[in-house]
Design goal:
There is one protein chain. With 518 residues, this protein is an alpha/beta fold. It contains 16 helices and 20 strands. It is globular, with a radius of gyration of 26 Å. Strands 2-1-3-4-11-10-9-6-7 form a nine-stranded mixed sheet, sandwiched between helices. A five-stranded parallel sheet has the order 14-13-12-15-16, sandwiched between helices. Strands 17, 18, 19 and 20 form a four-stranded mixed sheet that branches. Bound molecules: xanthosine-5'-monophosphate.
Length: 518
Amino acid sequence: MTHPTDSILIVDFGSQVTQLIARRVREAGVYSEIAPFTTADAAFARMAPKGVILSGSPASVLTDGSPRIPQAILDSGVPILGICYGQQVLMHQLGGSVTLGESGEFGHAVIEVTDDCALFDGVWQLGESHTVWMSHGDKVTALAPGFRPVAVSPGSPIAVVADDTRKYYATQFHMEVAHTPDGAKLIANFARHVCGLSGDWTMAEFRAAKIAEIRQQVGTGRVICGLSGGVDSSVVAVLIHEAIGEQLTCVYVDHGLMRAGESEQVVTLFRNHYNIPLVHVDAEATFLAGLAGITDPEAKRKFIGGAFIDIFEAEAKKVGGADFLAQGTLYPDVIESVSFTGGPSVTIKSHHNVGGLPDRMNMQLVEPLRELFKDEVRALGVELGLPPAFVGRHPFPGPGLAIRIPGEVTKERCDILRKADAIYLEEIRKAGLYDTIWQAFAVLLPVRSVGVMGDGRTYDNVLALRAVTSTDGMTAEAFQFPGDFLPRVATRIVNEVKGINRVTYDYTSKPPGTIEWE
Ligand code: XMP
């Protein structure tokens, strides 16, 4: 994998928010990668980064077997920024001491800047007070040689430490979270001012580098790309097409479970606008027939995933002669999670849309988005000329509407849901709310309710509307619509969609709910 030489390595000690550190560094225009502490020395040797950031952790440095900074990093002389556990482990390994906190600090705290240092230059001045986000039990009680304290908080006399000679800085607070208002500026300061990086890592640069890399990997070979209709596979297809043109064939297995107008939009965009060779397989009948009688959510996913692979494989064989399979794998899928509990985490839902495909087809993978976060993929899509409204679409699950129809999926129920969902999304766009919502959709419930329309009694379906805000889909809050928005949408849906006579709104957050109903 190629990567810019001007980079920062983030050593992950298992914090929930390590990915946010990578986000903040990249927002500062500097390429960054995360490596678990167990393999950080190899990543350090491979990347030759110009700086290292140490993440937080649920562990305590006082516990036997807790994570450590690889010695090679400490011996290398590159600047280091430690955050929370990162601060504690840095002090611990360099000769300071950490004490088990009797009472920790959790949440907002105010710190006072007691000395200048390069990390603060141009951001915080001596004597100022600033709000930060703390979340720690243990704390540093004696500095390692060479360090001096530069900020204090009521619960941490050593809230920030600095060693300008070695360019080592460490903070007790979490600067990667939005609750620390100046956190992004401090991280940018570390990357540019302390490590001396230029901050010119842009999507245009990434695009050019990836195109060269794809050409080199593929040579004169042929690539097959499975389009799902979603943003990631679309961006992959356009990028690879730009690199190798007609050597790419896209296969769009249309399961008939897309939102209103979406399949047509994908086909038109790819065939007519980009002129990308596209096989459009209308497999709606196959999928609906296979879904008949299935009501269990995991069984639906399993069937859809399996049928998708079968159809894709058959179509790929017809195209023939492809050596490479393109996939829209993103960085969050690639980052190895660091676990202190041993076993793998519990599977809540299996998101295996194309899982198993590469093994079975015995093809080499082309995964040009492996280093990107979702919004960076969107930015790359816009850079490649995809319409902003297309790349800005809310996330949509691989199994499509099938998991938004609890109970049995039928053509009639898909059509009812599509109409209602389209009205809901149209109103959201009209109200200018689309981009502030992470995901909004309707769910057709397996419940009937009594209503009255005109002079008649109705006995029809109930629809649930859902809209959530989120930063990564891992946690979510129900979106609070302004004033009369929901009543207006409910009225439109009941009036315009035959088969629905009642509309409800889902206020559940995640956790304990999930975003989708199935
Ligand atoms: P949940 O419902 O688990 O959803 O809170 C988190 C995010 O994942 C999407 N999702 C899926 N995506 N295949 C997918 O590709 C799936 O089976 C699937 N199930 C949920 C969901 O839409 C949300 O963005």
